Automatic annotation (TrEMBL), chain A:
Similarity annotation: Belongs to the binding-protein-dependent transport system permease family.
PANTHER family: INNER MEMBRANE ABC TRANSPORTER PERMEASE PROTEIN YDCV
Organism for this UniProt entry: Celeribacter baekdonensis
Coiled-coil residue windows: none
The name this protein goes by in its record: Putative spermidine/putrescine transport system permease protein
Bilayer topology annotation: Multi-pass membrane protein
Residues annotated as transmembrane: 7-32, 52-80, 92-117, 129-148, 189-211, 231-253
Example of a GO biological process term: transmembrane transport
Pfam family membership, one: BPD_transp_1
Domain ABC transmembrane type-1, chain residue ranges per copy: 53-249
Keywords of the record: Cell inner membrane, Cell membrane, Membrane, Transmembrane, Transmembrane helix, Transport
Automatic annotation (TrEMBL), chain B:
Record bears the keyword Nucleotide-binding: yes
Highest taxon of source: Bacteria
Entry protein name: Putative spermidine/putrescine transport system ATP-binding protein
Residue ranges of every copy of the ABC transporter domain listed in the record: 4-234
GO BP of this protein: quaternary ammonium group transport
Keyword terms of this UniProt record: ATP-binding, Nucleotide-binding, Transport
Claim: Lipid biosynthesis is one of the keywords in the record: no
GO molecular function, one term: ATP binding
One GO CC term on file: ATP-binding cassette (ABC) transporter complex
Family annotation (Gene3D superfamilies): 2.40.50.100, P-loop containing nucleotide triphosphate hydrolases (3.40.50.300)
Organism whose genome encodes this protein: Celeribacter baekdonensis
Length: 275, 352
């Protein structure tokens, strides 16, 4: 007796999927129609031909990488220390880490401009480099909710306290413990957090445009106002990029130690022998 | 000559004092167990020896050196945890080599030492496995090898067998003892399992509410408990209210028993005496010179042992007898005599 085909649920699922997929297909189709009467990648070519595009992409990628580095350096030791020394404060820290989701970026950046403006003792916005630093800090703040959650979950998966004690009893200092024991064991969590940070920062608009940086987000908006086909091409590329990020995150997250990132050969079969 | 010395250790967490007046001397090469119910402070004492906790007062010396304030990473102490705590990102080989790399040992020497350690735990063939690819028993062996590889001054084990199933528990227990004796390493072993403590140790420290109630060889602990708690906690006991008749004899269960071992008792004082179930028999054995009349309540066949519950003067008494081919199960309701020798009568200390 086979079960009846679940017609209704299938239709609902298809309708839901169409809601996301149809606009995507339409956009992709539109992006291929720059040359009248034929399908071509002309719009993509023209995007890549633009020096401005490569310039802003390079700038945004650099800023995002800096944000990842800074975020990891702040979040990993904090999460580690909280779990090890003040586990009771964890809910408080978790709530604090969510603040960037509650406070709109506009408020954040206006705060920055007022705090670090021309009349400040630390007038970061008066120089190019200072503004860039502020931009990276802004990206770090925006990504903290994701980075903290990813890292903290990674730490929850291993017994941080006992591993630390095991390493210490073997003579390792706190720094060596973090570098050789803690860090490698939460690497996949950090990589997940890094990809999320990267995809948030790369197309960020509010902070970037209010700080007037030559970055990808404002460029995207500008293109949308000035051209027809190129923005569609850019949107498709942004989608593709996000998907690649997700796949890489998944690959890192499910990897076991001692395995390659991508397994080309069939996995070595390992049996759990009884001792 | 004491190698590990704990002097007057007290440890409080906020208002809770969890270890008090703890004194212990462990000789070089000795195997000492901390035995006690959960929450009595065994782990806390072990962690103070390891350097993960600092005593509120008192001092700890290892090999004549005061280590009370030394951080764990500089104490040269090997530690084995209940949850194995192998580094998940490292293979068996790298786990065992970790302490040696930290100590800056040359590559070639590390390889030799790791091979030697893996040989000791007979897991040489699994050197390239990762922790998640091994059973609990195998992981704990690796944890033992990892702790021993840097040749520590002391080996500390905190309930290392509690997470394993019964069969592996006994075999690993024997391995731990064998390796400890082979290396002659001074060892402190924490457990709440009396069989484990009695079978593996040179000496046992029975802990109760943060104190060392009794420190002695397994035989002393079992046969001559010095506190009420030790008597109750280690092994099973039948206790009887009794009275001191004269400096030479005590009265219980309707009998006067002449016992020259307890001459210091004041006549007329109420005391408690106890008999281990295995000291009792329903048939007189050679040497049995005393007996109490009773009635069989019920009996259980346990394979090597027959366990009977006997009603003696209104009190339930457990009797354990070795099973033999000709033994018959006592029948409930039958009259019975409970036999023992006067040497088996334990006079329990009034100290709780
Ligand atoms: N870090 C700590 N903070 C507060 N109380 C603790 C801490 N560690 C242990 N305790 C308390 O000390 C007592 C003894 O604990 P422990 O040494 O782990 O006992 P055992 O190992 O004998 O089961 C327990 O009541 C426990 O709650
Ligand atoms: Mg414990």
């Amino acid at each position: 007796m086979s079960r009846r085909f679940p017609l209704l649920s299938t239709l609902i699922a298809l309708a839901g999927a169409a809601f996301f997929i149809v606009p995507l297909i339409a956009t992709f189709n539109f992006s291929l129609r720059m040359k009248r009467g034929e399908l071509s990648f002309e719009a993509y070519r023209s995007v890549f031909d633009s020096d401005v595009f490569l310039g802003v992409l390079g700038f945004s990628a650099t800023a995002s990488l800096m944000a990842i580095l800074m975020g990891v350096l702040i979040v990993v030791p904090t999460a580690y220390w909280v779990r090890l020394r003040v586990p009771r404060a964890r809910p408080v820290i978790e709530f604090l880490s969510l603040m960037p989701l509650i406070i709109p970026p506009v408020v954040l950046v206006f705060g920055y401009v007022r705090l670090y403006g021309s009349s400040s003792i630390l007038p970061l916005t008066m120089t190019e480099a200072g503004t860039n630093v502020l931009l990276v800090i802004g990206y770090v703040v925006l990504s903290v909710p994701y980075m903290y959650r990813a890292v903290d979950n990674g730490m929850a998966a291993i017994d941080i306290a006992t591993l630390t004690e095991a390493a210490e009893s073997l003579g390792a200092s706190r720094l060596r413990t973090i570098v050789f024991v803690i860090f490698p064991n939460i690497r996949s969590a950090i990589v997940s957090g890094a990809f999320l940070t990267f995809s948030i920062s790369l197309g960020e608009f509010v902070i970037t445009s209010l700080l007037n940086r030559p970055a990808f987000g404002p460029y995207l908006v500008q293109m949308g106002q000035d051209f027809a086909y190129q923005p569609a091409a850019l949107a498709i590329m942004a989608f593709a990029f996000t998907w690649i990020c997700m796949v890489l995150m998944e690959a890192f997250a499910t990897r076991k130690p001692g395995q390659r990132l991508l397994q080309w050969r069939a996995p070595r079969s390992v049996t759990k022998a009884k001792s | 000559m004491s190698f590990l010395t704990l002097k007057n250790i007290t440890k409080s967490f906020g208002p809770n004092t969890v270890v008090r007046d703890f004194d212990l001397n462990v000789a070089s090469g000795e195997f000492v167990s901390f035995l006690g119910p959960s929450g009595c402070g065994k782990t806390t004492v072990l962690r103070m020896i390891a350097g993960f906790e600092t005593p509120s007062s008192g001092s700890i010396h290892v090999g004549g050196m005061d280590v009370t304030a030394l951080p764990a990473s500089r104490r040269k102490i090997g530690m084995v945890f209940q949850a194995y705590a192998l580094f998940p990102n490292m293979s068996v080989r790298d786990n065992v080599a970790f302490g040696l790399k930290i100590a800056g040992m040359p590559r070639a020497e590390i390889d030799t030492r790791v091979a030697e350690m893996l040989d000791l735990i007979s897991l040489g063939s699994l050197a390239d496995r990762y922790p998640y690819q091994m059973s609990g028993g195998q992981q704990q062996r690796v944890a033992l090898a990892r702790a021993l590889a840097p040749r520590p001054n002391l080996l500390l084990l905190d309930e290392p067998l509690s997470a394993l199933d019964a069969q592996i528990r006994t075999s690993l227990r024997d391995d731990i003892r064998r390796i400890q004796q082979e290396l002659g390493i001074t060892t402190v072993f924490v457990t709440h399992d009396q069989e484990e403590a009695l079978s593996i140790s040179d000496r046992v420290v029975v802990m109760h509410k943060g104190r060392a109630d009794q420190i002695g060889t397994p035989a002393q602990i079992y046969n001559r408990p010095t506190t009420r708690f030790v008597a109750d906690f280690v092994g099973k006991l039948n206790t009887f209210e009794a009275r001191v008749e004269s400096p030479q004899s005590i009265f219980f269960a309707g009998q006067n028993i002449h016992d020259p071992r307890h001459t210091d008792l004041t006549p007329g004082a109420p005391i408690t005496v106890a008999l281990r179930p295995e000291a009792l028999s329903l048939r007189p054995r050679p040497g049995d010179d005393l007996s109490l009349p009773g009635r069989v309540l019920h009996s259980t066949f346990l394979g090597s042992v027959i366990r009977a519950q006997i009603d003696v003067a209104g009190q339930q008494v457990s009797v354990d007898m070795f099973n033999r081919a000709d033994a018959t199960l006592p029948v409930a309701g039958d009259m019975a005599e409970v036999w023992f020798t006067r040497g088996d009568v334990l006079v329990l200390p009034s100290v709780m």
